[in-house]
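Data card: per-record layout.
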Amino acid sequence: MTLRCLFVDFNSYFASVEQFDHKELRGRPVGVVPVMAATTCCIAASPEAKRVGVKTGTPVHEALERCPDIMIVQARPARYVELHHRLIAAIEDCIPIDGKPLSIDEVACRLIGRERQRDQAIAIARKIKQTLVDRELSPILCSIGIAPNTFLAKTASDIQKVDGLTVIELSDLPHALHGLQLHDLCGIGPSMLQRLIDAGIDTVAKLTAAPREHLRAIWGGIEGERFWAQLRGIEPPSRQRKTVASVGHSHVLDPQMRSAHGMRSVMFKLLAKAAMRLRGERCQARGMSLHIRFVGKEQRFSRDLSFAPLDDTPTLLQLMADAIEPLMRAADGRWQVHRYPPLSVAVSLTDLQPSTADTASLFPDRHRNQALTRVLDQVNQRYGHNRLYFGTMQHALEQGAAPMRIPFQHIPDQATEADVGDPAHADPSMDELWLQRERQFKAMAETAHRQARERSAPKPKPATPSHQPSGVGGWVRKRRNEADPDGRGTTGSLF
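The structure for this 495-residue chain is written out next.
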């Protein structure tokens, strides 16, 4: 009776949905990408692709080298959310879900009473799998883990892929985990893995044998104790929701938007969306963070602004416009846009405080901007996001740039993220799921790009002191990359 959690993990979810919708993709390696460009990475790979070494975070050019016949398809967030709700409904007909789904492709269910008996829990798991088949939702398959807590149930669901079913009872611990690698455990990424190795823990057996105080010291706080408890089948108390610290959006620019004008338009769209989310959280921002990456350049453009608390869109847009104005001027001269086009942009509103703490402004311009913002929100909430918008966003909207994305622990809010005319806008169930997954993808993509650069980088030559000319608007000019002699930094073809 030690089994308390049943965890459902849909295998290669995005790629499986593409195979579900397109029969010609079934049985073939498939890679799902956010944009159709050779410089991006796979955010999902089908089991057939994974067997040849293509996985989430693999750069597209690498995926094509490893698997020349892989089918590259662009992500369709609205479709993934739509099928997510159908899959959740199928699971709920077999067992209630414990709270909200953990992500768009992961669901935890609490076992109670007789359901905690091994045979009963396995019967529920098999019923879930059969229900998916009966509702003609294959080839979307799931692996199910059953264990004393959510952490171990998730770990069990990863042990047997694809379409697996694994049970870990309290009596199986810790030996049931010893066959795993440290990075197989949820919560151990590259940096934590290195910290564990530096502390003398290089196997799961050593990790499970480590005392609580040792793990607390490695993690640097209470998270180490939580991890120690989870390894022993204890379910730690759920964390209280923290006050939102920042709101923001980032976007890898499509090839047709990699110009100074396209970059600026996308940044305005992202900031307007972040400002609307800020007001939805009933907060005001006292800071703004801007980051721009360029093709062919290691150096980034970054700006961190501080100002009095505010939440109205016109004032925020003006502050950002002023901050990037030096860069825009450089586009006509010192910034060689054709050689170093913008690759990605990120806009965040930071240092938030509750709106109730605001003191009324003494300036009439602020009153006018706040009134305009209220009108924009009312119209867009009633008739669709970006039904009314600022003219600087026109190019981004025409090109469909920076569409709604699905974070793994957040289903997007249709009112604040889905544009009018976007297929996602027609789906009223868009309440909260594409940002955590996108953040995870971006972290993996950054790692993959960095590793690729390190492999291809020439051996460093002895440094010679030289004058480093100052750049424009927050970035410093660097020498042209020897691996890219013509320095054009253009986006290559996928095929």
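Known properties of this structure: DSSP finds 16 helices and eleven strands in the chain. The CA atoms of residues 38 and 493 lie 6 Å apart.

See the next section for split statistics.
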